[in-house]
Amino acid sequence: MEKHPVKRDFVSAGESVSLSEYYRKRKRFFAVFLICAAMLVAGFAVSYAWGEGGSAWKDRDGAPPETGSEENGTTEPAPSDRTEDTGALSESALSTESEGEAVPDDPTAGTPILSMTLSSPHGETYINNESIQAYDYRALLEADVSCEIGEAPLVLILHTHTSEGYAKEGSALIEGILGEVTYTKDPAQSVLSVGEVLCHTLKENGISAIHCRTVHDAEGLKGAYATAAESVRFFLSHYPSIMYVIDLHRDAILTSEGEYVRAVTYANGEALAQVMAVVGSDGNGTKHERWKESLALAEQLCRSLNADVPTLCRPTVLRNASYNQELSPYSLLLEIGTGGNSVEEAKRSAVLVGKALATLIRGR
After folding, report:
1. Which runs of consecutive H residues, i.e. helices, occur in 205-342?
2. What is the pLDDT of residues 324-358, one digit of tens each?
3. Alpha carbon of 11 to those of 4, 23, 26, 271: distances in Å?
4. Distance between the two ends of the chain, CA-based, in angstroms?
5. pTM of the predicted structure, to 2 decimals
6. What gap in Å lies between CA 332 and CA 290, rounded to an integer?
7. Closest CA to 276 of 218, 192, 169, 353
8. What are the tens digits of pLDDT across the range 203-235?
């Protein structure tokens, strides 16, 4: 038995089978192929002629043109990985995700500090969504993020990157290698002192809180989140009343010109370090079913802070990584200032964060 080339059924050897339809289809296919090939060749010819030898996509110097804004006769790179309208690198390339500090070309020459107010040009409803997730913004604002108040601890404050430090008051330059001098073992100059103010403020406003002072990055930034997770589990097992976990950091931002950004705003004549919430999700596969609750807490906290001090909060960032936030009902990574802010500026902001957070926990 032989296989029919068209009908694909079987015929006996020597049986007469008409293949005319088969060959007609092959001729039509070949004709279509020739037409498509001719059109493709013509397209390349036109493109080559129009592009002056195929180089029209280049600029006059023969380099690919940059997209972005032109100002003072210069062309800036496209801001796909930069904070809107500031020229500063976005937080996504910095310490909370890369577990490292960006450094200038010459790290020993000193880094100038540039004071900036990093506010969103997109309005108060803008969330910097770097995740694969979707959300209902109205539902975030309407969500009840309060809980019943008692004497048992409700809030845990800790620091995954405990050694993150701040600049000295009035500094115009950071001298030395950023990855070294912007970290410190002195708790008075690190995020530990800011966490202490936040904890004290919550207690003053009727919310029982615990401040974990464990140095989770004692062995370096790598692995600090795993070490911090052990602390979170420890406190949750001993104090099941804890509903809110705040992982307090400070940010690290370099402009494209190599300046270290001091994220600052002002109220009543005082400088305040700007605050940014980073919310994790289950976008990386981690089981984290309550990320929307944490996002709701972040947005309500941001709206409350900006209502009292406009531009105090930078836009919330939503990420695929979970940052240990799956371990508790409500959890936020809070960046209070940057390494360019002074610790006093960060402490002033921590007081405002504590008051606003206490109000949300008590309920409207």
Report:
1. 224-238, 291-308
2. 999 999 999 999 999 999 999 999 999 999 999 99
3. 7, 19, 22, 91
4. 84
5. 0.73
6. 12
7. 353
8. 999 999 999 999 999 999 999 999 999 999 999
